[in-house]
Amino acid sequence: MNMLVRVMAPVALVVGLGFSQTYDLPILFVNTQNNKCLDMNVTEKIPATMRVLDGATNNVADSAKGTLYNIGIKVRGQSSATFPKPGYTIEIRDDKGESKDVSMFGLPPSDDWILHGPYVDKSLIRNALAHWMFRQAGRYSPRTKHFDLYINGQYRGVYALVEKIKRGKYRVKVSKLKETDLAGDSLTGGYIWAFDKTGTNTGGAGNNNQGGIDAEGFKTNGGVNVIMHYPKKDKDPQKNKLQKQQEEYLKKYLNDLEGLFSNGKNGSGYEKYVDLGSAVDYVLHQEAVNNADSYWCSFFLFKPKDSKGGKVTLGPPWDFNLAMSNGTQPENGGGQQGGQGGMWGGMGGMGGMFSSGTTGWQIESSSKFGGGGMGMGFTGPAWLNKLWTSDATYKAEVKRRWAELRSGVWHDKTLDKYLDSMKTYLTKAAERNFKRWPNLGKASGTYDADPEPMKECNSSGGQSSQGGGGWGGGFGMGGGMGMAMGGYNATTWDGEFEHVRKKMKERMKWMDDQLGFTEPANPTVTDPLIAEIHNPDWQHANNDGDDDNFDDNDSIPEKPQFAGDHSRLAPGNFFAVNGDHIDVQTTIGGTFALLDLNGTVLFKTKIKTGLTTLKIPAKAQNKAWIATLNGKMMNR
Q: What is the band of 80 on the pLDDT scale with cuts at 50, 70, 90?
């Protein structure tokens, strides 16, 4: 941790939209120490202050009244770090410069937060929508809150606060792995990692990465980059938290998993290594949102201790700038390719994977599995691709789960309800944003010029990519390496927003057809069962408030078949099917029911807290159904 002197810089005069402007979103005012430039060349967090206004309405003139925090801040992301409207990562710090957990916008406390800047995503909602959908499936995904951002007095547009993927009671709930945990069960978890590019922990996309993959993680026998996020690996011994024995354990575990599918093997025994439910939900989610970056980068996974379940669990999902038909080609697929050569110019053959269409499985793209990550030296896990293509049990569970999700929490009408709400919420904010960033109706991407550059950086940005139209935007020497992204360019925010709605429905209808499913007229159930871990009452929790030191046994049922389901939003409330019986585990009790996909009640009974074993009624056997508790969807 870098120590810092308490920053007491005066609040800068805000400019851009008028000092008396009243906003319907929260406002964050960031002021760097001595007005230091905050751009992509800042690779270590610099000291700053942040004031937060979070009322029903918020006036820029009241900036000095906002809650004051000391923070460290830097630009984050990989290719997105080169956008003129980049994202930022912040760390909340106390007076001594040490990290400090705080709640932001009512979310559970943490010291690390992401300020996501939608730029090529002109709908402003792709990341929020994708994370909401994964939570609708009953699994943890980072929560989001939109806000307006000022940096050093200058308006930077509409951003989204996003929880950082990290270990914690209200986030990825795996056991704390201490530096002394070097043998036995304590060595087996918890771990959080990503299959990703090198440089994600040291600057992004390989920038400022010294030492290659060994500086951040390791490479499996199958050539997959494993970037360690918990415990974090760092070449600096003072920052490194990952012990050699821990790295070797996880490497062997992943290599053993890969080995089940190599040299002609059929993967027999994979269920001992992989949480099947998470492998189904994660793939269906990536496919539903049609994520161009799926499987080979920003792919997070975790592993709890063996005594807590111990299997590789897929998720939480991350990074949806290029999802939901926001590819680099126009809708008609005619994006220019080639152009000025360079790294991207030779990638014309990859255009289909990043197109704005709604057909084709992302998981069947050969370039993502064993293809070297489009020639960049990284790849997705071949075992996941082989599960999809060849395992009958997996394919059957994919179809069953798709029918369950699409009949309820992913139904078109459930999606409409969420989108309608977000559209109302963001209408005025979008107007402000696109006055600041007038990029509607034109291609936008890396190294675009900033129309209102931050004066302290004394630069207007690099070469604009507006003439790109596809991968062929080219890498300009000296002036920046512009690459256009986003093949659909509506002239209004409403057009961009409705494009997302339209393409999501087209995509899911295509998946319906491929998986042999017909969506019912109305959703069977619109919400998942939400226990306190989803919207946690952390302010009244019986703990010390430290997100990193929760009780490992908290909310985990004792029965072995339920142990350690850390991926669920409601880990104490779910069920398992054992032959012709259902074991229902609940911490709240109530009315348990089985509904067919059209909402007809097949079975209903009252249950108490704890474990209840029920016989599946004859009319529900050999039939697709959804389990509910108190009218909300339970998960297996």
A: confident
